[in-house]
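Researcher: Please generate the 3D structure of the following complex. Treat every line as part of one assembly.
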Amino acid sequence: MAEQTIKVPRLYQQVAEKLIEMIESGEYDVGSRLPAERELAAMFSVSRPTIREAVIALELENFVEVRTGSGVYVKAGRRESGRLADKDIGPFELTEARILFEGEAAALAARMITDAELRQLESILGEMAAENESGEEMHEEADKKFHMTIAQATRNSAVVSVIEGLWDARESSPLTRRMYQRVRNKGFKPSIEEHRDVFNAIATRDPAIARAAMREHLTRVIDSILEATEVEAIEAARSEVAKSRERYSVARKLG
Amino acid sequence: MAEQTIKVPRLYQQVAEKLIEMIESGEYDVGSRLPAERELAAMFSVSRPTIREAVIALELENFVEVRTGSGVYVKAGRRESGRLADKDIGPFELTEARILFEGEAAALAARMITDAELRQLESILGEMAAENESGEEMHEEADKKFHMTIAQATRNSAVVSVIEGLWDARESSPLTRRMYQRVRNKGFKPSIEEHRDVFNAIATRDPAIARAAMREHLTRVIDSILEATEVEAIEAARSEVAKSRERYSVARKLG
DNA sequence: CCTTGTAAACTGGTCAACCCAATTGCCGGG
DNA sequence: CCCGGCAATTGGGTTGACCAGTTTACAAGG
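Model: Done. Output below.
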């Protein structure tokens, strides 16, 4: 059973990935032409249809522009893994919002949660550990389940919807998807210890403690993303919360 | 010179567009399988590679999910069961969520807001007053604008999108809409004083003060709804309203 | 009768070779 | 030096075939 079905990404995705790397590394200047599809096919040892699929993927992400009969050209859009297309939400903004909102959800959940839900939460920690051990692919499932269970414990469907939306938003655009993928590839897995801390905090049924624990956990998530993506500070700088000292003080609330 | 050959969109784009239309028109339910690539190819009278390209486009935009050996399935995330809209969220849940989330947004906004935005906020107070005087219809516009301006001051698009979603959610279910209508009919208008308090609090640029003010404001909103719907609350005593009535006091005490 | 295997049918994944049309570039004639 | 035209190059799209997972139907076995 040591054998795991390693999910082989589709070929065009691998090719697209490599092409993006090449473009981001400046191997092809903006405005310059990429090698012909036939050449690329030879380079990557794949067929031309596969190359075409990859090119289309890059085209949809605004990395390149294809001119019929001429070639595919690197688009002007400021490259360097950063350029968030207007509409999509970057991982930092996303996680910052989660710090704010899930912190409050945890606080409310601490007040409302039932013993049964607490047991369920704890069992999810087990699942998470199991997933971390085995296939890397699934491990986010338990993580989501953990956070959603807390959300549901608030007994507020609006809260549940918002938090689920925030979670799913990471899959919303190819760009953010790639960023999270990068984080995963770097070996960052949801820390059991951190989640257990959150669990313990909620188990105290003290809102302030629960909020502080959740904020702490998500703040570390931001740190992970930062570390993994060595991303331009421009976007990260927007995250005031990440560097803020205005953390909720557990001690203050306890007194 | 005047004659320009209209650029014919690439074939895969045309196909992708048609497929999106079909999906959005509900021709294929979420979770259901689309016709096989070979069938689609026959349907659109194009080759299979072209269909594949179109499918990849939909996949990148999160419309569908491709399962090898099985088929391509319509994804849920995009619309339908996704957003807060048509989720049937009661007014109390909604406002409770706003207390939690907008409170935090206000706190963050207090730290981030620019002088220009502060001026804009203040001018919205003026609009609100004007709307209260004249037609009742419009006055919610200024109210929304007020809250959205604060959200935008956080410089976090995830926060903005969540708060806008929460606002629009009041139009989601018929029940919720009727309740808000009732509140308006009872003569409850967004209080300028309350909003000015929030404005002043944010102007101090102190997160804690801003959060408290926003929570206070929204807590009063819940009171208004409670008061305005008291009769209804008796009818539906065992459902939402009664439960929420006891609930919101919990949220209030969290801070 | 129900269960269980297993093989066939189906579906996406990929490849190879081919034709077409637009673009580019070279080359020779003016 | 300029310009027209032809040929090479490039993307756009097609056909047909084969492979590898999934699903399904059907028959053997309990």
